[in-house]
């Protein structure tokens, strides 16, 4: 997602990843590999969306 020259928001769907494991380190590794495969610079990423799962959001279980 970025803001164009005239202030309009632009966003593009990049793809989906099939996860074999769901720990935070697995997500980081998958995102880094995805960016590398698509020749995207991780240093230019400014937005990250997630569905609220505790692994990504850093939430802790109330158990």
UniProtKB/TrEMBL annotation:
<protein>
    <submittedName>
        <fullName>Uncharacterized protein</fullName>
    </submittedName>
</protein>
